[in-house]
Amino acid sequence: MITTLLYSLTGLILFGMGFFTLIIHSHPLRKILAVNVMGTGVFLILVATAYIPLGQGEIDPVPHAMVLTGIVVSVSVTALALILACRVQETSNITLLKGTKQSEDIKETGA
Amino acid sequence: MIFHVDSASWIIAPVILPLIAGLLCFLFNRKIFIIALAAALANFLVVCFLIWQLLNFGPMRSYIGGWQPPLGITLRTDGPALLMLLMTAITGLGVTLYARGYFSHRISDPVRAFRHQRQQRYFWPLWMLLLTGLNGLFLSGDIFNLYVTLELIGISAASLAALSGKPASQRASFRYLLISLLGSLTYLLGIVFLYRTCGVLDLTLLRNLAGNESGMGAALALLSVGLLLKTALVPLHFWLPPAHANALAPVSVILSALVVKASFYLLFRFWFELFAPIVTMPALNFMGTLGAIAILWGAIQAMRQHRLKLMVAYSTVSQLGYLFVAFPLSRITEGAEVWSIVIFMALTHACAKSAMFMAAGSVYLHLGHDRIKDLGGVRASLPVTVFAYGIAGVSLMGLPPSGAFIAKWMLLSSSFASSQWWWVLVIMTGSLLAMIYVFRVMSQFFVIPEGDVLDTPEPLSPLLEWPALILALISLFLGLFAPWPLHILSQGSTGLALIFPGALP
Amino acid sequence: MNSGQLLLIAILLSSFIPGIIIFCLPEEKHRLRTRLNLCGSILKIALILVMNAGIYYGHVYEIRIPLIPGVELLLNGDPLSALFATLSSVLWLLTTIYAVGYLEGSPNRSHFFGYFSLCVTVTIGIALAGNLVTFLLFYEMLTLTTYPLVIHRGTEKSLRAGRNYLIYAFSGGAVFLVAVVWLQAVVGPVDFSAAGFSPSYLDSHGPVLTIIFVLLIIGVGVKAALVPLHGWLPQAMVAPAPVSALLHAVAVVKAGAFGIIRIVLDVYGAQNLLLLGVLPLLAAVATVTIFYGSIRALQQDDLKRRLAYSTISQVSYIALGMSMVDQPLAVIGGLIHLVHQGLMKITLFFCAGNLAETLGIHRISEMSGVARRMPLTMAAFSIGALGMIGIPPTVGFVSKWYLGLGGLAGGNWWLLLVLVVSSLLNAWYFLPILTSAWFGKQKGEWPEEMYIGRYETSLMLLVPPLVTAFIVLAAGLVANAQISPLAWVRFIVRGYGL
Amino acid sequence: MTPAGLQTTMYALILSLAAGTPLMMVILCCTPLRVRVLRLLPLATVPALLIALTAPCDVVVEVGWFFMGGRMGLDETGRIFLLLSGFVWLLAGFGSRSLLKDDNDQVRFHMFFLTAMAGNFGLILAKGMLGYYLFFAMMSFAAYGLVVHKGSEEAIRAGRRYLLLVMIGEVALFTALIILVHTSGSTVLEDFAGVSYGPLILILLFVGFGVKIGALPLHGWMMPAYQTTPIPAAAALAGSMVNAGILGWLRFLPLGQISCPKGAVLFIVAGGLAAVYGVVAGLNSKQAGAVLGGSSISQMGLITVIFGMGLFDQNAGLHATPVLIIYVVHHSLAKSSLFFGYDLVERQGKILSQLQLAAILLPALALAGLPFTSGAIAKTAFKELAVNLGDPWYGLSAFFLPVTAIGTTILMLHFMAVIRYSRGSDKPGRTVSRIIFALSCVAVAVPLWLWPGANNFASHSVAGIKLLQGVWPVAGGCLLFFIWRRISFTTKVEANDQKRKIGFDTIMDTVTSLLQEKEHQKPQQDRLVIFISRLVPHLRKAEKIMGRWKVVGLSYIAMCLILLFLLL
Amino acid sequence: MSTEKKIKGQTRNRHRRFDAYQLLFLCLVFCLIALLGTILCTIPENFPGLADTVASLQEQSGVESPVTAVLLNFRGYDTLLEVMVLLLAVIGVWSLTKAPVSNLKTDISPVQMGVVRLLTPVLCLVAAYLVWQGSHLAGGAFQGGAILGAAGVLLLVSELDWLRAVPAFVLRIGLILGPLVFVGTALCCLFFTGELLAYPKGTAGWLILLIETVCALSIGLTLALLFGGGRPEDDVPD
Fold first, then answer.
1. A2-91 CATH choice from 1.10.287.3510, 1.10.10.350, 3.40.430.10, 3.60.21.10
2. Please, which chains are in contact with C (at least 3 CB pairs closer than 8 A)?
3. D255-299 residue pLDDT tens
4. Is B452 left (phi over 0), alpha (psi -120 to 50) or beta?
5. Which of B113, B116, B241, D388 could form a disulfide with B106 if both were Cys (CB 3.0 to 4.6 A apart)?
6. Pairwise CA distance, residues E197 & E191, whole Å
7. Which ipTM was obtained for this model?
8. Which residue numbers of C have CB closer than 8 Å to B's CBs?
């Protein structure tokens, strides 16, 4: 049980860290990475949920399947987000890889 | 032989049909409109059939792969689900036609023909897969399956939003994608809590298990916040207006009318069915308050916009608030029907909003811009569109006989019945503000421009004008036919007490 | 569906279908459009007359469409609705003829006439509404259908007027909706035919019912232009003359006044209102409106503005009559004024429109000697104006007479004072117009004179005011006949057992 | 239809011809036939005259559908009034037709003329309260068209006064009627017998009809209006329309059936004051029409006194009625004759001949009550009425009558003096005018002597001492007139007139201008728009702030926490 | 000078405020995490889970690995949609941009080429093995697909521009092959058994293997194409 909790809490902390970065850092790439970290956190908890100490019974495969699905989704979204970020970078002055400050926030469009 | 009229297998059709259509649309290069249209049409027919089935044989469940819960995934039909499906089917059909008109018009413009051809080429598969996601979401009875459908919707919606290729739309889409992802992850975290607590994923089982455990509460909170992000309830609405306003017109329609409804539908399911036992009155009031703020804030922001599409987008923010105001009003003895009216409201709003965005899109195509102060003369050249805009506006304002009026009526009467008069103030103020922003535009249509007559005499294709009008009319007259949707709603929706005995003629 | 229901639907469709067709017609087909309009309106009048006969002989006309529990659409032909429907349909015919002449050659006519027809459909709907929900439905739709007409000219000024109109009307509508819902929450659905809810509610919900009554009156008071909810009306006069006629005489203001009548007579009922003791409030508001409207009218130099303020003042007679709902004579006075005010005011607006259209005259100061140029128009105008003052034998006198008698019968001596002062004020703002028009000397050229045929103005513009002026006179002269508005109103009042 | 019903209908039809004929002519005037119609103008009075002469009395027909219950009929009083009015209108009709032959606005004028005529006939025949009111209003308002016909500034001003007072009268009358109907429960004139007249009704009725006869506080319109109205129409106004007020009193306060001492005092005091005031006011003016107007105020004051006397009790009422009628007939004929005489002056381009002067003097002195004139008969009747009434009134009248006679004499001489040397412009219809004038003089001289009711008084008036009593005031009046002429021939009459005009009109003008909205006020910017436009930058900012990731993060966390807190 | 100072001051101010915000935000995030953690800890231990259920039905699933059973049999519907998600990502990426043209045609190091030549077949083999193994141990379509994808990526970074060489239509067929077969199988099942994805008795194992194989191909292609970063030239006329 402790193991599960430990992993779960670690997952939660990862989630929190990811979220913190997502909000605090304005750079698109960091945001994408942050989201991935968050996702990893959640998957960690999920996997921890399935953990059963040896000999106490079967391992629950359902969370595994869920994590697998989650990872696939995460991969897809990340791919899309990266391409989008590239496109945004191409069409505006936001630098993708260098510097973090000047892209303070992505300008509100329209209005 | 296995697809009897009372067979539950039909449930799968609204998911599979657009899915296959999406694959085919992606595969082929030509005539994909035909495929999409056929799918949308078939989808519509199937949904009608499902409703008929529901009314005659009651709610259906389909166990995918033959596996019963807790392991397998269940698809089920009941009133709310089918009404949402119906909403999607009708709007979807309209959008499909409209998009055809839109792209044909665009492609006929030689300067940008290629770009628009490309957009059209990807629009159709994305749209079909989005439809798959929507239908899957409405039908699904499994909380993790809902996550997958949500992702399906989120990714396709974000791709669609970026389709126009304008930098603004891509920025907005990027943000939308991130927010959507954040929402999904929060949702997933909620699922984790839920699974930890209950160990099952099936909604029906979960409902039976729902007790006063803290895990459930946390799960509901996380699920709700995730969904609220996707629903764009104030103060988390910031991504919506730019994403909706900068997208291509048919995409705006889809996003505003359907996509936000999907996540709202889940909220509805969770708060009123799944977690109904643990939902507390303060929490409902909190949601209601957010809704009230959304109504006012969205309307005020809509009022100050200079561009038509942005105005319509903010109006979506405002209108979503109404759906949440219904939350605190659901818990009173006499007005138990309120919770179901929310779905009805979503239905009318979907029709009205899609009509409005279609009208805005047509105006944009016609004029080449959508600055509100320069809309003069449109009335003469696009009478149908202006008419559609007006009717949709009427519906948004909740004037009789629109469906929104019936919804507003029920909200008001339950706030009186429960002596929560402050909601009355909010609702009425909201509709007055709606009046202001709707008619600010409307009156500009009526301006007769001085001197220079528009040099675009070519009329828009009927595909651009009529779907808007028809959808607007549907939303307008939905109020008159309210008993039917409400009757459908009352079918087999588990959760709360059944409603409207004897209301049907 | 029985024949009665068919008749009701036919009455509504007789203007709705032409309206829709007109929308679809291209701009150039004015012949067909005119024919459609005229056929529709004549058919409507005929149908309504059939219905009137049926109502008189006790037929029941009713359509119920349930929406949700407690909310149903109810169309119901009762004597009161027959009164309003007849008025509207007859005036619609005339206004249509007038509008055809008035808008000769102006843009967007198909829209105009389309909305025009819809507007009348909605007005008839208001007349036929059998409960508050239905009334509300048509009441709001009325705002919508009149709005395009108000801003038809598309100028900055008309847009502003339109905006104000909307804000007022929808705010009123919102208040009305709230009140209706609240009322329903308290006493349940009330059909108009029930003539009031059970007095037993008064014990438990007295104050709430009072508040609801006030809200209801505010709701309809906006359209009825009760002070201080009148602000939109004078501004709305920027609309073309037929629209003004429609607003003031056929549809909008009338709908508000009709709403007051419905609320007082049918929703609350005389008995309940007396017990609640809110009638003095209504009377006070009506009185203030009467005076305020008259005084403001005096200040105007713009002819249509003056007429608009005059409407504000005059329509409150209806409310005044309703505020003495226990006195049958006063009720007769109020009800009959619904018809009479419409006839007189439409005459005046037609004439004002003629002046503006033919000679470009908008201001009263430009009217000096105009009767020499347009004697028939001014004759009609004079009849209308004298009617407004209440000079016999015009219909205006009949209204005032019954109001006065009713007031005395109820011991309300102040009412006489109100009538007297208001008549004097009316005279003060109307008679100078008449005298300068008939006896003044023409000052210079007319602002923009158009040559229109052999009559003083085009025949289409000339005939409607003459007809209405004739009715103003004739309906007064034969007020006591078997078939006259007054007789019908008496029939209505008998029905309420007053 | 039963024969009786048929008869009733026929009767109703015939009676309605009296007012109907002029109204028909009005309508025909709107058609291209107008020239031909106007040629037949005087004929409009023929049905009325025929009815007055031949129709049976005391038959009342109900015309239920007509204007809230129409009733009409002819009684003795009505017959006299109708005859009188018909005659005056007939002459006036001839006069105005010829006078306005070349006038641009003759159609308009004659439409008003005919309408006023119709109203006048109609009200005489009306036996229902509302009918009376209807025709009364019709006549009053139509007469406005006659007053302002000339279109001069003076005329317009006179018209304004007239209209103002008419409106006040109308309103007062309306109120009175409503109260009467409320108290009596009926609109039938005969039913008022049992009604108790409160002070309010009396005052209202006094005001309502008093306006028409120029009773004292309501006299303001009379002198200017008589001056500006085309003279034949003025003759009709003074000779016939004014009587409608008297008839109104008679109808609504049925003498002989009611007793009302308070009312009597009101009427007598007001009448007495008017009788004196009229003379003074007339002497103050140098315009012939206005002088005649002053005389009318004065004479009508006397009639008011007579009416007041009749109000004391039923008995007095019975006695007063014939006297009243005699006096009305006398005054109408005399006054219209004077107007026709004045008309003659205005139409011929030279000063009056001696014969003409003498002819004008006849009605003038008749008004003053010279023996052997109708005036003498009327005065005698007055006196005898006073005798019947008893002491305080007899004494008063013994003093009062000579005074008014002297005053009237002076006034009439003043009138003669005004017209003696004036010469009109050469207007059409001299011959017609002469004939009319002759006819009217004959009328003054003849009818009262022949009329059965007056026989008595006529013989009394020529009896011995009465003769003397009749002569001395006239003689005294002549004397005083000449003295007055010597002293102040050139008093600032005009200035006086001017001042009064200014007084009245400035009040009207000031009030109107005070009420006038300021022209071209700055178009009021909508408060809403201003408010929103001020708010917009803030709103934009706020929305932008809400879109920042930081804020989003905060709201996300806040919502999570709140929901957790609320749901746990 | 002074303005410069001012600007500096402002930036410093902003910086400080930013810090305060960070701190506050950090606290809040911490609170949230702590709260969630607490709740997580309080969730009772006797966690039911679905392990037993899965175990009891393992026999009928046609595969031995429980995860694969869940993925492709019990919750095959999820997987179907998931495959669609991947496809969607490709469509989304294609709709956004064209694949970038690499400029480094000239110097591909022979070592790299050698590695590619060596590794690609191996990777394909590994992938096939993983797919095959999926029926009884960890592994399956996704894992296999991932390896295949890696192979594709390897080729791409080695400037073997198969992205351009292969006609877009073929790529599209490759992309939708997996989903199409999956759906097709599901529909066949629906037709024969009345439930979607309810494999007829005894065929489950084979069908799952079929699906997995095809899906692995498609997934591999998908991942490689995602790396490719855009649509091929000839996907639409541009």
1. 1.10.287.3510
2. B, D
3. 888 888 888 888 888 998 998 888 888 888 888 888 899 999 999
4. beta
5. B116
6. 10
7. 0.87
8. 23, 65-71, 73, 107-108, 111, 133, 136-137, 140-141, 144, 147-148, 151-155, 159, 162-163, 166-167, 170-171, 173-175, 177-178, 181-182, 184-186
